[in-house]
């Protein structure tokens, strides 16, 4: 199994369990070692009365991309802390894409950057800090 | 109208429009000048297969409390950036409570702290940075 | 020894070693369990040509207050991550005061808030995340 | 004048005024549009008794790199907020290098990432949020 195949296998196991991401309508577009891309259309139940997406759903998409990226080496890893900067609103019907990349790993810690876009527009920049907690997703 | 009545009136206007917070099952428990408390039960569609809440929903609750607190003076105000530290997991059926308090206002900017709890347990600490964008919620 | 006496004893040991804080002209005003207050005058070598303090020195004062607060229980503890919001400039000759308070401790982790003021003016709001690394400052 | 020449001219004006960065022994290695690299040796007056650099000086180096990067387009720009994750200690005698890159600009706001290294070792990851305040560094 190559590292990227391993990343995909870990993602399948996580995804099967991740009711929340499924119910929000996320799609797992790509996973490889240290990286993951997910997309999600903004539904009407994710917006306020003006059709603007609630920041919680933008965060949730970024957070899921972060989770798949930081678990891609088959070490169970959790989010410790995250920050997000909102740079443009998202609207009902928009397809949001969150691309997570690994910035730095040290000891059991990791730093991941996630950019959330809608077409050419950057909607948010997210940074997550992870910590490996022991255990694996799959036996190999 | 007292400042706290004004805060409540602004919250009513915002709430009527806030489909997302309503659909997540949030309840607006308290609003006053610079502060707001919301609660939300963790539903099964907010969890992964092990019954643990997705961080996005914990963030969303904190973000809504932040929004009601920073808009409580009848100045339209948006979230610029937020950070969250997760200190304990939440589980299906937990009632989460997010209490937002104002830490500092300067110029058009504000800093708000939101603590998310489940009973005596602190689930997350959130800090939001807001910016007033002009305009009011209600005429007065 | 009371918890606050212990906090003071830990601070004395740390201070004796902390050449950097001493050379920046910091003074340790107060230490107790989970809290510390330090002050520092802004010297001309801490400013730019317009007499405004470099953000690094404002951060350094807050970071030192954070360090004394999070080490006040005689467990060796380090800074993992910090964020700072600058709300007003500081100037040459200003006496800055940084007051650190404990917000939350969970497992080996802690969250501390530090407010940096000059008189009535809030200059910066800092939040630090700590991690205990094992070992003690003093035998007791 | 090319954009990179403009960046360099802005940096020269800022540097001439930046007593603090000069006195900390920083050297401006490179400036171009949206990016800047500075270096600084860790002096003994920047450390504690064990020869480990105070986090304030690591932050200060990153903050200066951020400042030169976000002012490189001849628009006066200030730091609003910054966060830093410390991943490895720095020691007396180490030469620290901080490389700032532009991540996103929107309206008057910017997000810059700064990596602080010592040789191959990543010492810290810093993210700064800037805001243009009007005015220019040089007439052109």
Describe the 3D structure.
- The structure is a homotetramer of 140-residue chains.
- In chain A, 26% of the residues lie in helices and 41% in strands.
- The first copy, chain A, is of the alpha+beta class and 140 residues long.
- The first copy, chain A, has a single domain (3-132), classed as Hotdog Thioesterase (Thiol Ester Dehydrase, Chain A), CATH 3.10.129.
- Chain A starts with a helix and ends in an 8-residue tail after the last strand.
- In chain A, 50% of the residues are buried.
- Chains A and B meet through helix 1, helix 2, helix 3 and strand 3 of A and helix 1, helix 2, helix 3 and strand 3 of B.
Question: What labels would you give this structure?
Answer:
about 140 residues, alpha+beta, globular
Q: How are the SSEs ordered, and which strands pair?
A:
The structure is a homotetramer of 140-residue chains.
Chain A lengths: L2 H15 L1 H5 L3 E6 L2 E7 L13 H16 L6 E10 L8 E12 L2 E10 L2 E12 L8
Antiparallel strand pairs in A: 1-2, 2-4, 3-6, 4-5, 5-6
């Amino acid at each position: 199994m190559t590292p990227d195949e391993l990343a995909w296998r870990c993602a399948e196991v996580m995804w099967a369990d991740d009711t929340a991401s499924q119910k929000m309508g996320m799609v797992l577009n790509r996973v490889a070692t240290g990286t993951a891309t997910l997309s999600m259309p903004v539904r009407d139940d994710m917006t306020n009365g003006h059709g603007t997406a609630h920041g919680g759903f933008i965060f949730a998409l970024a957070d899921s991309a972060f989770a798949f990226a930081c678990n891609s080496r088959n070490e169970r890893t959790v989010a410790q802390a995250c920050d997000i900067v909102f740079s443009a609103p998202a609207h009902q019907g928009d397809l949001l894409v969150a691309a997570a990349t690994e910035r730095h790993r040290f000891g059991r810690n990791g730093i991941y950057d996630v950019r959330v876009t809608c077409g050419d527009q950057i909607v948010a920049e997210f940074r997550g800090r992870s910590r490996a907690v022991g255990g694996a997703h799959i036996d190999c």
